[in-house]
């Protein structure tokens, strides 16, 4: 029974290589936890910025209003750029999401585009950022503020904050517009050197299986192994297994390390005899 909530969040995810990863969507609680971690980091940086500004302006009678405006502008780019920069990285996740073992993916199974990342995070400003700053400004206003306007801003924030609870895919409005999901990433022990990786003896490949790829694919495989991106490892492993007809099973990371080592040995051995294969399209 404990697994039932997890099963309800599982979704078919067909990659461009035709591999079904069967991803599990992040729960609303996991997403909230990731956001709180990221918010703490952003506000910590903002407080440091404010303290630095206060030190710079200490003893100065003029120019403080301009510097304060600059601080607010920097804060806007900080909170917006923070999410975009991290989600455009190879892990497609902010530090908060990485701590909660989450990442962003495109719902259509394709590559996560920069446009989608920018769109989903631009919507966050409309969902939460602008109303929050409005409320904060009214709280420190000396001439009073319209109570009903504050209530409207609070209702706006609450509507978008709890939106993931009212759709089966736990999406923010930003995810809905950008065509993205936030999903759990597989737990995996990484950090193994590509060159010195221990190869399990259970992985034995035939000459035909090794002949499926050449030097170009070997380099790309090494890039995937060094980058240590969980979803890329799964996709590449299953794509190679399908191409070479592998039925031996095994852990994806261990399979790729074993295939990489065996392919290295084959290509080096062939080069000694003057045989060289640049890529999978050349004859072996």
UniProtKB/TrEMBL annotation:
Domain of life of the native organism: Bacteria
Matches recorded under InterPro entries: RDD
Keywords, alphabetical: Membrane, Transmembrane, Transmembrane helix
TM spans (from-to): 32-54, 66-85, 148-166
Domain RDD residues, every copy: 25-179
Pfam families: RDD
Compartment annotation: Membrane
Membrane topology, from the record: Multi-pass membrane protein
Identification of the protein by name: RDD family protein
Organism this protein belongs to: Sphingomonas rustica
């Amino acid at each position: 029974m404990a697994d039932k909530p997890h099963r309800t969040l599982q979704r078919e995810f067909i990659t461009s290589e035709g591999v079904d990863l069967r991803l599990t969507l992040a729960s609303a609680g996991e997403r909230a936890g990731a956001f709180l971690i990221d918010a703490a980091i952003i506000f910590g940086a903002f407080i440091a910025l404010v303290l630095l500004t206060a030190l710079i302006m200490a003893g100065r009678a003029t120019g403080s209003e301009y510097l304060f405006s600059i601080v607010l502008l920097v804060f806007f780019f900080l909170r917006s750029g923070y999410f975009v920069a991290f989600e455009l990285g190879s892990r497609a996740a902010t530090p908060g999401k990485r701590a909660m073992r989450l990442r962003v993916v495109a719902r259509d199974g394709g590559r996560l585009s920069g446009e989608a990342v920018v769109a989903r995070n631009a919507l966050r400003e409309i969902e939460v950022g602008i109303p929050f700053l409005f409320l904060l400004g009214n709280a420190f206003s000396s001439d009073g503020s319209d109570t009903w306007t504050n209530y409207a801003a609070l209702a706006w924030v609450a509507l978008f904050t709890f939106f993931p609870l009212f759709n089966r895919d736990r999406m923010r409005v930003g995810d809905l517009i950008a065509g993205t999901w936030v999903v759990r990433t597989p737990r995996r022990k990484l950090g193994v050197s590509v060159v010195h990786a221990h190869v399990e003896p259970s992985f034995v490949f035939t000459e035909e299986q090794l002949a499926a790829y050449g030097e170009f694919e070997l380099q790309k495989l090494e890039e995937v192994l060094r980058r240590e991106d969980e979803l890329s490892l799964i996709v590449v492993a299953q794509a190679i297994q399908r191409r070479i007809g592998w039925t031996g099973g095994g852990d994806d990371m261990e399979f790729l390390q074993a295939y990489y080592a065996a392919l290295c040995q084959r290509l080096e051995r062939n080069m000694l005899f003057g045989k060289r294969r640049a890529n999978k399209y050349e004859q072996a």
